[in-house]
Amino acid sequence: MITSFLAKALGRNIVIAAAILLALAALVPALNLLTAPDHALHVPTYVVSLFGKYLTYALLALALDLVWGFCGILSLGHAAFFALGGYAMGMYLMRQIGARGSYGNPLLPDFMVFLNWKELPWFWHGFDKFWFAALMAVLVPGLLAFVFGWFAFRSRVNGVYLSIITQAMTFALLLAFFRNDMGFGGNNGLTDFKDILGFNIQSNGTRSALFAASAIALALSLVITSGIVRSKYGKILIGVRDAESRTRFLGYRVEHMKLFAFVVSAMMAGVAGALYVPQVGIINPGEFEPANSIEVVIWTAVGGRGTLIGPIVGAIVVNGGKSIFTAAFPEFWLFALGGLFVLVTLFLPKGIVGTARQFVERRKEYRKAREAEAAAFAAEPQAAE
Amino acid sequence: MNTFVSNAKPTSILYLDGVSVSFDGFKALNSLSFVIEPGELRAIIGPNGAGKTTMMDIITGKTRPDAGEVFFKGTIDLTQKDETEIAQLGIGRKFQKPTVFESHTVWDNLELALNRNRGVFSTLFYRLTAEDKTRIEDILSTVRLVGRKDDYAAHLSHGQKQWLEIGMLLAQEPELLLVDEPVAGMTDAETAETATLLKEIAKTRSVVVVEHDMGFIRDLGVKVTCLAEGSVLAEGSIDFVSAHQKVIENYLGR
Predict the structure, then answer these.
(1) How far is B252 from chain A (nearest CA, A)?
(2) What is the CA angle A337-A211-A196, rounded to 5?
(3) Are strands B41-45 and B224-228 parallel, antiparallel or unpaired?
(4) How far apart are CA A215 and CA A333, in angstroms?
(5) Which region, left, alpha or beta, applies to residue A167 given φ > 0 means left and ψ of -120 to 50 means alpha?
(6) pLDDT in tens, chain B (254 residues)
(7) For the packed helices A232-242 and A45-71, what is the interaxial angle rounded to 10 degrees?
(8) What ipTM was estimated for this complex?
């Protein structure tokens, strides 16, 4: 059962993309750790961290592509799942600080001491263990997606209305996490992390390991998503996207189909967030900003919606551009981003990967037609004789 | 209540009695009653706005009636079920505008329509069995699409899309098939072939066809129900119905 699922998952392009990611997972840390800083091939640590961050963005875009590209659910709240995964990891990292905080309290994180709290809130228990935090980074976004999706899909909220309530969801979370009494550090969020699994979070080794973990998580998620969309279930998902009532009248429970994809996608976004936080060293309510979720949509559209590899390319290209652009002309970045979105929508509606794929297919068709023509021409004189 | 209709309830495949529904004060169906027997092929005609599509919406669970009874196989109350449940019970529906999965191949369209376990996890790990393969191949030849099985449905002609949709309904193995204007936009040759196809299908299941094309109805040669303003105007053979005074006034004469 699982083997047939995997066999279908592994299209040629997916194998190549996953192999590149796995190669990077080995190569980049090696070039960072094993070469001298003045060596030509040396990868500086800040680059490792920067690209590690891009990979988590790519994973978030991939997660969005599963629901938007293949099921037509334009979620404008996916950054919320990312941020929740990030908070789960942030809570673990806070608990790891222990007595090394400014106030030296072995149990309470600094911001709780500052707020005069006497004991750890109930929902902070268990986060001193890595496995628990890792589990929560997946389960909490999954649960939120399940509850949200259950009501939205059952009530048949579709199209732009669904997009609007996903925005409302992330905005509501933004406001909630801003409040100090929520117990997540309010405005400042969680930061000043010291170590993860006993390793110094600032060290080159940890940074490289986090990069490798992000690349592996992305490769794995790519294979899983590919397996999902190539299965019969995936075909039904595309059916829901293109002709929802037809799927219903064929006897499929559309709300269950959507819900499964939405929950899987939210869990992937949670993993991305959990990998993001230790690499950037902070998580605050700003991650719930509605604009963040919209940016994810842009990455996906630029790379190519519904192509799986496209969103990965899009996330890396757009964020790479952002890093360069914001350093060179900081005040123009938003114009550039907006312009990019307009240009892609007008001239590359299928995105970078989608357009490339279309080009290859056209060439193939053209060649086939030419061959058929040549065959017909060769056959003709004999028929005439 | 119509006593003739009530007596037929236990043995019927589809039973509608006194079904009414209105939208914003407009009575789309006004105490509509009729009965379809198992294995019957029935044609339904009527002017635009007579309630033909609304009737199909009610049978397939898309719309809830304000009043009246709708029973499948005499005992199953369709007004309490939604589209998915009704499809799983064995009622298939072809839309007026051909609705197929355009970005899937003809083969995949049929594979998705097959009457198999439709849960998330059973479809996630589904593998094409030899049995399913034979079944799809059979349907492909029934709807005359063998040569196009690997083409995307988007590339089919209008008539071929109509047939593909009929093929998908067959794959669903319904006991009752509702077909809304199957020959709209078809050439004469395609229309004649569709009549043959529907008669073939009706040998093993009940079929209700809504159609405007009187020539096509004549080709089918079955009992005809004429609807107007949400209720039955006349019912009988095509000659009886087309000679009926009210039908001429309301529909044919205009």
Answers:
(1) 32
(2) 115
(3) parallel
(4) 27
(5) alpha
(6) 455 556 777 889 999 999 999 998 888 999 999 999 998 999 999 888 888 989 999 999 999 999 999 999 989 999 999 999 999 999 999 988 889 999 999 999 999 999 999 999 999 999 899 999 999 999 999 999 999 999 999 999 988 999 999 999 999 999 999 999 888 888 888 888 888 888 888 888 999 999 888 888 888 889 999 998 899 988 999 888 888 888 888 777 65
(7) 70
(8) 0.90
The count of other CB atoms within 10 Å of the CB of residue A368 is 10
Measure A359 CA to nearest chain B CA, in Å. Answer: 17
Length of chain B: 254
Of A222, A190, A239, the closest CA to residue A90 belongs to: A190
Candidate from B84, B87, B123 with C-beta closest to A233: B123
Give Cβ neighbours of residue A44 (< 8 Å, ≥ 6 apart).
Answer: A32, A37
Chosen from A4, A226, A241, A249 to mutate, greatest number of chain B CBs within 10 A: A249
Task: Give one DSSP letter per residue of B79-111, joined into a string.
Answer: GG--HHHHHHHTEEEE-SS----TTSBHHHHHH
User: CB-based contacts of B94: which residues, under 8 Å, 6+ apart?
Assistant: B162, B165, B166, B169, B177, B178, B179, B180, B182
Q: Do B99 and A257 touch (CB under 8 A)?
A: no
Q: Is B232 helix (H, G, I), strand (E, B) or coil?
A: strand
- Which strand ranges, in their side-by-side order, compose the sheet holding B14-23? B26-36, B14-23, B67-72, B76-77
Tokens of residue B178, six digits: 């509702």
* Chain A CB contacts of B62 below 8 Å: 245
What ranges do the domains of chain A cover? Answer: 2-349
Q: What is the pTM of this model?
A: 0.93
Locate the chain A residue with the closest alpha carbon to B173: A250
Residue whose token pair is 């037809």: A246
- Cβ–Cβ under 8 Å, residues A308 and A14: yes
Residues B29 and A165: their CA atoms lie apart, in Å, by 36
Distance of CA A151 to the CA centre of its chain: 24
Number of helical (H) and strand (E) elements in chain B, helices listed first? 11, 10
Q: B59, B84, B85, B133: which to substitute to probe chain A, counting the most A Cβ within 10 Å?
A: B84
- Identify any residues that bridge with B69 across adjacent strands, giving them in sequence order: B17
C-beta atoms surrounding A2 within 10 Å: 8
Collect all residues of chain B within an 8 Å Cβ-Cβ radius of residue A260. 120
B99, B101, B118 ranked by CB distance to A251: nearest: B118
